[in-house]
Specification:
69% helix; 5 strands; three-stranded mixed beta sheet; 324 residues
Length: 324
């Protein structure tokens, strides 16, 4: 009885909102991303996160807005709407087992990421300025220029190249011995600046949220496309941050290529919410090319982008309340 009520009242509506919501959010974002006002990577990363948030926001607001399913302000939109609702419910029934599987997988990934974070800290501990004077000298200089607090630093003993950030309350920068030994001084500076870009924008928290949403929406192929677009623009935004902070686009381009060659590519790493600095799936060749072409200089208005994002979200939510 409880299971039937749970599925009918909560799971099926959520599945319907996801099916319609990703498309309702993605289409206007796709149009906006083509406008010159949204050429900068910060704006595009923000916009591409919208289609994953829209279904959840519309689902949570379906009660407060007081709109009945398949009606708009009490007026039915006809037989076509009834057919859509009937077909949607059939699809929801079919997808229910997949949805529960997706939730289990998403929760398992969160637990794995928390375990991995704690394991890094327990296994290696935090590096000190006395032990790593050159590393901290560069990091302190970059943080001073970026006007952010110096994060905690963990240096792993891995021989391959690794660099990522984790945590959002107290950010931590993780780098490997292979990275420190494989890059020259300028290249290392740009890589550290790239990671500081993620910290400055709190990408770790947003990435974890959007990754969770993508996982529970895995039965919608468009959700994977949306998340990949977001992840690509997010990395480019940190690339631009690094080059503007250091003024060394050539050194960073060389660093990306070196890190890609020295990186480890495994299934376990794919499950963790810490994307590789030079993941080829994120468009490594394109990232290097745009750095050398000076595209990192494009800076848009984040306030204008936020207003556009709110407008798209509001419009998409209204459309979902109409259709679902």
């Amino acid at each position: 009885m409880f299971y039937t009520m749970l599925v009918k009242n909560y799971v099926h509506p959520f599945i319907l909102y996801v099916l319609f919501g990703t498309l309702a959010g993605y289409l206007p974002v796709l149009l906006l991303a083509r406008l010159p006002q949204f050429r900068d990577t910060r704006s595009r990363a923000l916009l591409y996160g919208i289609p994953l948030v829209v279904p959840v926001a519309a689902y949570l607001l379906r009660g407060p807005l007081g709109l009945d399913r398949c009606t708009v302000y009490g007026h039915s939109i006809g037989q076509i709407d009834s057919w859509l609702c009937f077909a949607g419910n059939i699809v929801a029934v079919i997808l229910t087992p997949l949805f529960f599987t997706a939730v289990i997988f998403a929760v398992a990934r969160v637990i794995l990421s928390i375990y991995a974070s704690r394991n890094f800290i327990n296994k290696y501990g935090y590096a000190s300025e006395a032990d790593r004077p050159k590393l901290f000298a560069t990091l302190n200089m970059l943080c001073l220029k970026a006007e952010i607090k110096v994060p905690g630093v963990i240096v792993t003993r891995d021989v391959f190249a690794r660099a990522f950030t984790m945590g959002f309350r107290s950010p931590v920068l993780v780098v490997s011995e292979g990275l420190l030994n494989g890059l020259d001084e300028d290249e290392l500076e740009t890589v550290l600046a790239h990671e500081l870009g993620h910290i400055a924008r709190r990408d770790s928290l947003l990435n974890r949220i959007l990754l969770f949403l993508k996982d529970i929406m895995f039965f919608v192929p468009l959700a994977n496309v949306v998340f990949r677009n977001y992840a690509t623009e997010k990395e480019k935004a940190s690339d631009d941050f690094a080059v503007r902070l250091t003024g060394k686009p050539m050194a960073f381009a060389q660093a990306l290529i070196k890190v890609w060659k020295m990186s480890r590519h495994s299934i376990i790493d794919e499950l963790l919410p810490y994307p590789s600095l030079a993941d080829n799936g994120g468009g490594l060749e394109n990232r290097v090319e745009r750095l050398l072409n000076g595209e990192h200089r494009v800076i848009g208005s984040i306030g204008f982008t936020a207003a556009a994002a709110m407008a798209v979200t509001g419009l998409s939510i209204f459309v979902l309340q109409w259709v679902c």
